[in-house]
Amino acid sequence: MASTSDIRNGLCIRYNHDIFKIIEFLHVKPGKGPAFVRTKLKSVTTGKVIDNTFSAGHKIDEVRVETHKYQFLYQEGEFYHFMHTEDYTQIRLLEAALDMPNLLKEGEVVTILINTEDNLPLSVEMPPNVTLEVTHTEPGVKGNTATNATKPATVETGAEINVPLFINEGDKVKIETEKGTYKERVKE
Q1: 144-177, pLDDT tens digit by residue?
Q2: Which residue, 41, 90, 106, 131, has most beta carbons within 10 Å?
Q3: How far is the C-alpha of 168 from the C-alpha of 69, rounded, in Å?
Q4: Which of 166, 172, 160, 136 lies closest to 148, judged by CA?
Q5: 62: closest CA among 29, 101, 19, 104?
Q6: Exposure string (b/e) for 145-178, b if CB count within 10 Å is 16 or more?
């Protein structure tokens, strides 16, 4: 059993008959009243994010997890197939376990959290950025650039993101996976 002083980003805990990963936390010590910890928890089974407040010293049930590198192989319906990069064993996960499945291209290496108690995969962590090629976008119109104008673009995985007007079909762009937003154009 851990307590609220052990809370950190990425910690997995058992809460309300589910396993949650802490994605944000803040220790608060008000002038009046007891201290508490405000957290944002993400369910590793459903992906739902909830806000929760633990009083200081509250006991939390920590779940031991291991992280392993897996390479994305292919998608088959709602299942995504991955291969361990060291021992080449394969696993398949439901689409719900992935944060941004529409930004995942074949060959991408991801980190999979595995519960050490039952060796079941909990969730998939994407790399911070992915580089994808733009397959379709409308040409930008000169003179439309008042302030940070953007246009929709479809990338090779089928995801649609907003990009600046100077991006053309065939350009490679770096996308921030946490928000699914354009970061920069990649020069080759």
Answers
A1: 556 677 888 898 888 888 888 888 888 899 988 8
A2: 41
A3: 33
A4: 166
A5: 19
A6: eeeeeebebebebebebebbbebeeebebebbbe
> What pLDDT, on a 0 to 100 scale, did the predictor assign at position 145?
57
Cα 47 to Cα 77: distance, rounded to the nearest angstrom: 19
Task: Name residue, tokens 């065939």.
Answer: 170
Give the whole-angstrom CA distance, residue 154 versus residue 149: 17
Q: Which two tokens stand for residue 45?
A: 């089974």
pLDDT of residue 73: 92
Look up the CATH architecture of domain 2-62.
Roll (2.30)
Q: Distance (Å, rounded) from C-alpha 153 to C-alpha 165?
A: 10
Class of domain 129-186: mainly beta
pTM, entire model: 0.72
Q: Which two tokens stand for residue 7?
A: 């809370």
CATH fold for domain 65-125: OB fold (Dihydrolipoamide Acetyltransferase, E2P) (2.40.50)
Contact indicator for 54, 39 with CB cutoff of 8 Å: yes
Query: What's at 49, amino acid-wise?
Result: V
